[in-house]
Design a protein that fits this description.
Order of helices and strands: EEEEHEHHHHEHHE
Helix content: 25-40%
Radius of gyration: 18 Å
CATH superfamily: Vaccinia Virus protein VP39
Mean pLDDT: 94
Distance between the termini: 21 Å
Low-confidence stretches: none
CATH topology: Rossmann fold
CATH class: Alpha Beta
Largest sheet: 7 strands, mixed
Number of strands: 7
Structural class: alpha/beta
Number of helices: 7
Oligomer: single chain
Amino acid sequence: MIDTGNLRKLNLGCGFKKREGYLNVDSSSHCKPDMVLNVQKTPWPFENNAFDKVNMEHILEHMPSDSEYFFNFFLELYRVCSDKAEVFIECPYPFHRWQVADFTHQKPIHFEGIQMLDKNFCRTIIKENRTKTPLAIIYDIDFRIVRYERSIDPEAPHHIEQILGNYDPKKINSYARLFTNFISAQYFWLKVVK
């Protein structure tokens, strides 16, 4: 195991965006991270409960589409996070061209998928006999969505005006359901519960 010293914050998949006060980790040495780590190979070299804060900007969409890698990733993330750790995720919206334009993007991430990593949500879907998979129960992990935001593609309002005649910001949820390329990115703030 690697001693992280006083660094209780992890910037996973840092690329060239290093963060002060974080252990900056990436799978490639080209960006000169503090540590090179292939997160697909588990276990990670960190102690249990090593981190109180984890930042992940544009990493999940690069995970292999094989669900085994994805769930092993979340099992390890859960293991190295402390109780009440904060996890931030930024990734492309699954129905935006950015998700498919980059050849290295393999795994679309959707709000409803991240919901299934929350034990309370899973207990509800079991009780209501819903058809979603209770992943948090199956894998014994618990990530609660504290906050969720989306950003609108800067070109989208103009295109909606061209098609519909006007753009109404109050109809964002309807536009997001009907039009691909409307929402460009999504942001999750999660809390780890142990």
